[in-house]
Design brief:
This protein has 205 residues and is mainly alpha-helical. The protein has two domains: 75 residues, Rna Polymerase Sigma Factor, Chain: A; 104 residues, Arc Repressor Mutant, subunit A, CATH 1.10.10.10. Helix content is 69%, strand content 3%. The chain is built from twelve helices and two strands, in the order H-H-H-H-H-E-H-H-H-H-H-H-E-H. Strands 1-2 form a two-stranded antiparallel ribbon. The longest helix has 18 residues. It starts with 5 loop residues before the first helix and ends with a helix.
Length: 205
């Protein structure tokens, strides 16, 4: 077998240095897109193969993770989406009602967005199940923003859609996630449910 030339060796070293540190981020995103460990592993492997093949297209000094996530997302669409189980349909009107209930009967006691606070506890099955129930276009934006912490511009590049669309989907996706996780959030102490009797007293006074 012929040894790789110096250019190929340099390409491999650069790729390992720039791309491989993002393995965990790609797997996390792949898992939440495919909702299957084996499929996520296959998706990540294919993403790295494609990324290495087109490494010369990567613009050095830019966000490598965002570039890899774009490849992963496109790979998912092209090869896995048709085989993936569709998310459970969500009653959007019911979600909106639950969200209004959350706003009216609970006091938010965290400094950052509750959705981001909930993602800090992603080991909980309730969060994973709720995230899987989000319609795909909202789920992707929430994952990229609150899990991978990409900027609006980076998400726009990954999803190939306007920044305004990213903002709109993220806002709606977070509301849906918060509504789906209302009971879990109260139980976990992220929000405090107001006692109806005490609420009545405060209104009288």
């Amino acid at each position: 077998m012929a040894k790789p030339d110096k250019a190929e060796q340099q390409k491999r070293r650069e790729f390992e240095k720039e791309a491989l540190p993002h393995l965990s981020a790609l797997y996390e995103t792949g898992f939440f897109l495919s909702r299957n460990e084996t499929a996520a592993e296959d998706l990540v492997q294919e993403t790295f193969l494609r990324a290495f093949r087109f490494w010369d297209k990567y613009e050095k000094g830019t966000n490598c993770r965002a570039w890899l996530l774009r490849i992963l997302r496109n790979t998912y669409i092209n090869q896995y989406r048709r085989r993936a189980q569709q998310p459970t349909p969500v009653d959007l009107e019911e979600v909106d009602r639950n969200y209004e209930r959350l706003v009216e009967t609970a006091t938010i006691n965290v400094q950052r967005d509750p959705a981001q606070e909930l993602f800090a506890n992603l080991v909980d099955d309730e969060v994973v199940e709720a995230l899987e129930k989000l319609p795909e276009e909202f789920r992707q934006v929430v994952i990229l923003s609150d899990l991978q912490e990409l900027s609006y511009k980076e998400i726009s590049d990954v999803l190939e859609c306007p920044i305004g669309t990213v903002r709109s989907r993220l806002s709606r996706g977070r509301k849906m996630l918060q509504a789906l996780l209302y009971d879990f959030a109260v139980k976990g102490g992220f929000i405090q449910e107001e006692n109806p009797a005490e609420a009545g007293k405060s209104e009288e006074s």
